[in-house]
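Q: What structure does this chain adopt?
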Amino acid sequence: MRRLLTAVSSRFARKAGRFSPGARIEAMESRTLLSVTPLTSPPSSTPVSMPFTSTTATIDGTVFIDNNNNGILDIADTRVPFVEVYVDRDNNGIADLTVDEVVQADQDGDFRLSVPAGTWHVLPVFFGFDILEPTSPGLLPITVSAGDQFVGANFAFLNPGSVSGTVFGDTNGNGIQDAGEVGVAGKTVYADVNNDGVPDTGDLTALTDSSGNYTITGFNTGTFTIRLDVPPGGHQTAPSSGVYHDAIVAGQTATGNNFGLTGPDLAIQMLTAPPTQIVGGTKQKPLVVTITNVGSSAISNLVGVSLFASLDNTVDSSDWAVGGLLGRKTKLKPGQSKTLRVPLQPSQQVPTAAYKILAQVISSVPDENAANDVAVPGVTTTIVKPVVDLSVAYGSQPALVMDYATPTSVGVILTNHGNVEFSGSVRITVYTSVDGTLQNARPIGRSRIIKARLLPNQSRGFIVPVVFTGQRKGVFFILTTAQSVDDLSDNNSANNTVVSTFPSDIR
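A:
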């Protein structure tokens, strides 16, 4: 609030001629000024300047916005926190930190001044709203004796005025919101205080909601110029003068400040439905969409399409990007359409769930209506994580009798039980085991590396040569393992080992 002190001085200088220092004494004398309930506990104001060497009395009050403009602090009003209130010792209408006692109201708008016995002028530092009570601009001449606690030195500020209206997409450009012409969201309407034609510091502004409605608040009594910040590529059709000059009264709302806006309005439709199931990381057929300019003026800008996997059928930060088409230079006259093929490929990181694949048209220039920028398909798409699950089995059981000195072979069958293609190298290792477990197994020679390409649920047989070197003779189970040696890991290791049904006699 200290930054407002300079402005306060000029404001009080303009108003000083409206009253004399004693104008309120007869009406007030030693009573409370407004009908309020006395404080039950002292307010916890923060002192800013306390020049009095000794004090014998206190002055308590509240700063509030009088929402119902009745001059009384009641439940309908808004308490204003942290406003500075001061004892104007030199009666110059300025909060002089070296001369005046200055305190800051607490978070509830309550303040306490500590003063000697005498008559004191109490004022608030104005924070932008017109004051309603007391009628002399914030001046309270209060007389206190030693030991007094004066309660009710309240300052009621007028509920600020407001301006409301609608920004609508004026499809036919006639300056009237006709049937079927909807409000435009996200547009800036502002009170152009310095009349420079752009919203900047010091201007009161508001954004239109999803229905194109807006309300600007915070006006004191006066006449203000209300403008629409027209987006690039847009044209304003209403009002005909381009602006509204509103005579606003504090506490009241000026309605009907409507603005018509024409411009490009891109809409999107899906011509092909997304698949009902997608494996993350796999490329899908492109989605075919149609982009149409349903607005009232041509567009010649970058236009693209983004695809999202959404759980709630709306584009938001919780969605997964699953494809799209980068912006490309596009020219569309009103009513003209363009068909696009949009790549679709969710990443492997998308969690398994049922989604709606949303298509959103995007442009380098904002269009009139964001409500038709997203196409929602009627089908649900389940996205699952990619899985490779290799299993090994014997094509035929190993021979029951094998010659130690004669090379032989083992026939195995590899199967991909996953949902994506496997294409890579597989290490095949054959073991002998006394009990059919890997724990007690010994490899027969070196592992074999084979190349395999298997579609989901596809099987393929391989012959693995076996030479018993460095092995002892005896009766053993024959074990074979298959392990992927590529980056694409096997989702299930339980079926990567096969054991012969009967032991083989190696002689």
